[in-house]
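Handout, section B. The chain below has 653 residues.
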Amino acid sequence: MAPRLRPRHLARLVAIGSPSLAPDGERAVYVRSEVVAGEGDRPPGYRRRLHLVDVATGADRALTTGDSARAPAWSPCGRYLGFLAPPRGTAPGTKAAEQLHVIAVDGGESWARTSFAAGVLAFAWDTRGERLLVTTREDWSDAASERGVGRWVDDRTHRFDGVGWLPTGPVALWRVARDANGASERRFWFDQAPDDWQLSPDGKHLVYTAPTDRDEADQGMTRLWTRRAGGGRPRDLLGRAGLLGNLSVSPDGAAVAFQAPADLVTLGAPATTFVVPRRGGAARPLSSDVDTAPSVAGDTRVGSGPLRPVWLSDRTLLVAVNREGRSHLARLDVDGALEVLEEGERAVIAFAAAAGRTLALVETPTRPGVLAVRDADGAERVLVDPNAAFLAKRHVAAHERRSFVTEDGQALTYWCLRPAKPRRDGALVVQVHGGPYTNYGEGFMFEFQVLAAAGYTVVYGNPRGGSSFGAAFAGAIKGAYGTVDADDVLAIVDHASAAHDRPDAPVHLTGGSYGGFMTNWLTARVQRFRSAVTQRSICNWLSFFGTSDIGPWFTAQEQGGNPWDDTERLWDRSPLKHVANVRTPTLVIHSELDHRCPIEQGEQWFSALKVLGQAETRFLRFPDEGHELSRSGRPDRRIERLEAIVGWFETHA
């Protein structure tokens, strides 16, 4: 049998992302991320470089030489790429503001086009490809952190996970020349910082999302605006705020596609694709109860896009349809007709299109992301599979998809990874996804493969409240966390155990974020699990309201209240109220810079378990990490986390 995967093998995996096709469809660019070992006082980290691929031959070469390139974008002529990276010479592992760089794809070194103290937020090429537009806070700096003095706070949302202290300086739009010695000029200041923006194909108009004021921003809401690229008065295209994103302007500039919940505001509802006239008019939903944004979970990725719809013509969009744990490319017509282009056990994570070709980043439960190109005739080819050679020498556990119907008539789907060499006790590990508006399915989870390699049957599924199973499924737990969702997790446990070779085998439980909440909730309500690992969890909705970066609006939307008007309701739904019932040995894992589910949540759970003394517990705290530790944290810390999870379950066999 081939050697098994171990936590340390995380350092051997390559993650790829941000795929993009040249305008003529003949070449593709992507970001390639590899783990770099530490040296001296420098800890391990990642090397992110742009790679260029010939679509016809598959020839692949590194285009950049630095360590932190991202967000590549082709010039209209296809001869240049813009990208974001720290200034040349920045030491590996050193934080530095990202600047706009340009490189000629046929050879030569890149050149920096900006030097703003605050760096560049985003950029786009103009129509002729001789200039680029960038957004920046110019020379703003975090004086309080730099000088170590007191910090005055006026905005409710002043910290954000993965960012830290939010900048308070205004955002400007600049136009910069492509060439190294070209001129730059500021075009205008935004009233509020834009969240997402696109330039119209004629280069004359900007379309962007931004809140009207801080109240909307604090609720996670933005509006859809348009204004002339040279300045002028912005116009609100929808007349209301919502959870808007993934903007895309049609080739003729007449329409704007965007994605949002069907009612624009309900968190967790399927991502509906809308089209609205750029000059004003009613927004039309093109997809109803079809989730048109990828949300399948994975832990071996770099970056998060592109996810925005791609216009194939003035009437047709390319989207990714997320259904029952799978995501596939589809054509979506402006009249609402949907044509799924592929089927099978796969998850499309990002995609692009040009000149009749599509390019997709595709995962399966047994393979991290590969780049696949689909030609105009529909034939698909794998262009880049960076982990093929390594995984060919390792045992990768096969997966099995299962479905059943609960006692109350709900259809549920879950997956099993079966170990090549099961443990003597036949133990299972049940994983609960985060979100809750994500889903487990056909994505690649290295963590699950590591557990299977350690001999565990890994069970992961989708209780009510997750995405890709429709609006009713996702909305079933609004204001009711710990009800039907908890029943569903237990039903999945029972079904998996009954189908197992050893129906009486011990079951371990783990999950992060919402999955951590569910781990706490279930161990406080049932004595079903041999041990548990609760990660970046929630245990107290009353304190979460005031400490999380999304606390007030998330608590209001998801739990239906606030601490002063709905104290009893929030406390009843808090695992901490029921912690005296816990008897399950519990490992608490939390990151000290987690602003989404702050570490005080883990501290409360650990402290209560220690004081009560009825369940063995330990606390593993990670410094300098946020909510995304398991997916993008420092490599050695990610490995340590995996070793701790496996070790806890093995200790409590």
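Note. Residues 204-285 form one domain. Compare this with the example in section A.
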